[in-house]
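Give me structure tokens for this 537-residue protein.
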Amino acid sequence: MTDSSDNSKLRTIIDALLEEQGSLTAVERFSRAHDRCDLPAEKRHYSDLLPLTPPASGQQYAFEVDLDQCSGCKACVTACHSLNGLDDDESWRSVGLLYSDDWRQPFQQTVTTACHHCVDPGCLTGCPVLAYEKDPVTGIVQHLGDQCIGCQYCVMKCPYEVPQYSAERGIVRKCDMCSSRLAIGEAPACVQACPHEAIRITLVDQREVSVQFREDAASTSFLPASPAPDITVPTTRYKSAKPLSAGLLAGDHTRVQPASPHLPLVFMLVLSQLSVGASLAAVFTSAAKWLSLTALGVGVAAVLLGSLHLGQPLKAWRAFMGWRTSWFSREVIALGIYLPLAALAAAAFWLAPLSNFQKPLTIAAAVTGLVGVACSAMIYADTHREFWSTSRSFGKFFGTTALLGGAMALAIGMISGTPMHREQTILALFLVITAGAKLGLENRIFRHLADEETAAPTPLNKTARLLEGQLGLVWRWRVLLALAGGVVLPLIFLTGNAAGSAVVLALLGVCVMGELMERYLFFTAVAPVKMPGGIAH
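Here you go.
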């Protein structure tokens, strides 16, 4: 009887030990085997959270995140930072928060996120120098640092704020899913470091993901409070046994802060549009000779100032290479054709052999310049940021072109003494109408202050609040300068009660200052939808 009891106890202990062994996590199993040196040298890689087979045709690697297992410990962030040797202020993986503000259904969930290695990556299609490639076998989107010119357009194009610009290096960098580790069967740093196995590498079918996010309009299965997945078709899978309703809020959904001003781009855009406006005015006014020369000089200045935005300006000659998909490249090509045409148009007024081609060259320069302005507008409209929508970007950019072109024509005509009295009256009235229309377009943003405040603020609501609050002083100066330069001074000029030259010079200067402020606000007031962040303080 005693022996039978002892055997029963012995079996129970063994069963318990076996049960414990069977419940070990992948991390614990690997740790024990590694400590006992049970793994051969070529197999000592943590691979339990990797697919058993490489991607088949039409498949690719993707992150899979089990939200129920994510505790928000940020071990993945630390491991990624350490392994990749990132700068102190650089991070390729982040941890955010989703929560419900409904007291009847309390909910809180931490979310770890990194590059989604999209099926149609915005960083790749927007890059003007082909500094991105999507591996045809693994599907991993990799950045080529030696190709990068540091234009930062990929930062704007990516809805998930994945590429990180390094001012010290003058290039951007991003997560490559630790492709060198995957190549030898070792898990990425974030996967290996997670103590709860919340992150793993899986295989996804690119066609299925594209259909899910682009053809199924009702699909909301990516992640609440995140950018629309139909833009780039992200491949990361977020799974949870808990319902992730569309009403969940990001931890930082109340945060409203100005974006980067991109000052070189502010000057480049305004001056390039002034140049094109002057070329266009040269087609229709009597002061074509001096307007063409001014257009050339201002256009060259715009390009030189724009190059200051590049981290690697000596590589800028490559910027045409992405013309098939990148509006940045198309802008470079258009302006690259416009400047030589503007030079020829200006030279035609001074060189006898070209004198018979004055009008055709002036028209060609103006048309090419307008194409360049359209490409400039599409650069920002293509980012899918609501404040940079197609209608707003085109309205502002072509409005600046028309306003500054008219102001320059009025000023050049007065200073050069070109007889154009009737034209001056038309130009002054044109400025009043254009300035009023442009201000009306810009002022429409404040309608979004009335957006529902009990839910997450919309991007346009955040922009309106920025313009009313933190950027309010700049906005008020912008309105004041626009009214002074575009309305008051042209009306004073029409009355003939003040010295004409002094008025038009002031008019031109005030209009340029007003447009520089408008373009500053264009960049700083944009509020993109992004992945959930931490709690806003």
